[in-house]
Amino acid sequence: SNERIASVMSSYLSNSTGSPCTVSQAAAVAALTGPQDCVEEMRRAFEERRNYIVERMNGIGGVSCLKPEGAFYVMMNVEKLIGKIEKQMKKAAADLNFEAAAELRDKMAELKKKYNELEK
C-alpha cells in the first residue's frame, strides 16, 4: 500500500472521529435530552417537500419516481422521456427534417449526460 495515502487517511480519521471537544459533547447531550418538538416540525417540513417534488416529477410526461420512505430526495427515471425524444428524432430524420433531428439529438445527448451524472 502507499504509505503516504495511509498516513493522510489515518490523520483524517483520527481528527474527524476522535476526542470530540467538551462543548460538542455538551451540545450533543442537550440535543438528545432536550425538547424534541422542533424535530417533528422539521420532519413534517421535509415530508411536505418530498411529497411536493414526487408529485411534480410524476406529473412530467416520460418522467417517474417512487416516493422514498426514509429520505426527502428522489431518484427519477427518465427512460421514457429519452425514448420519446429518440422517436421524434428518428421521425424527423425520416422526414428529411435534418435541422429538427439535430436539435432533438442534442437535447437527447444533454438529457443522457445529466442522467448519467445522477447515477454516479
Number of beta-strand segments: 2
Distance between the termini: 26 Å
Counted by DSSP, the helix tally is: 5
Q: How much strand content do the residues show?
A: under 5%
> Which secondary-structure class do the elements indicate?
mainly alpha
Strand order of the largest sheet: 1-2
Calculate Rg over CA atoms.
24 Å
Can you write the helix and strand succession as a string?
HHHEEHH
Mean pLDDT: 83
- General shape: elongated
Give start-end ranges of low-pLDDT stretches. Answer: none
Task: Walk me through what this model shows.
By secondary structure, this protein is mainly alpha-helical. It is built from five helices and two strands, in the order αααββαα. 72% of the residues lie in helices and 3% in strands. α4 runs antiparallel to α5. The model has no long low-confidence stretch (mean pLDDT 83).
SSE layout:
Blueprint: H1 3-17, H2 22-33, H3 37-58, E1 64-65, E2 76-77, H4 79-94, H5 98-119
Antiparallel strand pairs: 1-2
Helix pairs in contact: 4-5
